[in-house]
Amino acid sequence: MDLQLQDKSVIVLASSKGLGKAISTEFAKEGAKVLISSRSEEELEKAKAEIQEVSGNKYVEYQVCDVTKKDDLVQLVQKAIELHGTVDVLINNAGGPKAGTFDDFSDQDWQNAFELNLLSFTRAIREVLPSMRAKQSGRIVNIASSSIKQTLDNLILSNTFRSGIVGLSKSLSQELASDNILINTVGPGRIATDRVASLDEKRAAQLGLSPVELREKTEQSIPLGRYGEPEEFAKAVVFLASGANTYMTGQALVVDGGLVKAL
């Protein structure tokens, strides 16, 4: 299948490691011109070199960007346009908020989670829309969590704001359809990333288990019997963001090995 991504201009937020890096790597393999971003220039330099080596694609650049800062997002999109003349694809991504229950969090914690996991997506979309509307084409994929289908224990902040992303995406799918801009949300289940490993460590400590024991127990609840690899998740995202996707918009999908039992 031709994904029609050769020379397309792609921005991936929070992409120096984890799911963002895996997604950027898959785009690079398809010949896209990829602009990666994160708060750490050191991590970005390392990620750029690794993505170029794996993909053989020299058109990988980076921009330091804190997604909670509006000016950083403005500058990120401006750089993509300076480099490539346009933005064809936006992948919204951000680190997860703090784990905990309702009583654990102050107003500031809620505000921080809102800015990190919802407002950042809104701002980034606002910045790319003029470019996409000008050429009557674009793809936006918002990375969320499997909590968009089924809430997760001890992750009330994520449950709240990831659901907000679905509402944003569904509304925009209606508003942007006439401009041929397709927008979807994808939630990872138990994908083997540093974030999931950190959450597993905390949960294991609470249950008096080792992280290995907790992982084995969790894998028993996944129909495919294992955690997913970042590359497996990335391939689903890249399809939705590609020219091969011409009729899927406003959807909220999970890549979870069958873990979520909700319809």
Shape: globular
The count of helical stretches stands at 8
Structural class: alpha/beta
- Domains (count): 1
Order of neighbouring strands in the sheet with most strands: 3-2-1-4-5-6-7
Q: Cα distance, first to last residue? A: 29 Å
Radius of gyration: 18 Å
What is the CATH architecture assignment?
3-Layer(aba) Sandwich
Strand tally, please?
7
Strand content: 5-15%
CATH superfamily: NAD(P)-binding Rossmann-like Domain
CATH class: Alpha Beta
Order of helices and strands: EHEHEHEHEHEHHHE
Could you say what the CATH topology is called? Rossmann fold
Biggest beta sheet summary: 7 strands, parallel
Oligomer: single chain
The unreliable regions are: none
Percent in helix? 40-55%
What is the residue-mean pLDDT, rounded to a whole number? 97
Keywords: Oxidoreductase
GO molecular function: oxidoreductase activity
Family: Belongs to the short-chain dehydrogenases/reductases (SDR) family.
Pfam family, one: adh_short_C2
What does this structure look like?
It is a single chain. The protein is α/β, with parallel strands linked by helices. The protein has one domain: NAD(P)-binding Rossmann-like Domain (Rossmann fold), CATH 3.40.50. Helix content is 48%, strand content 14%. The chain has eight helices and seven strands. It has a seven-stranded parallel β-sheet, sandwiched between helices. Helix 5 (156-176) links the parallel strand 5 (138-143) and strand 6. The protein starts with 8 loop residues before the first strand and ends in an 8-residue tail after the last strand. 46% of the residues are buried. The model has no long low-confidence stretch (mean pLDDT 97).
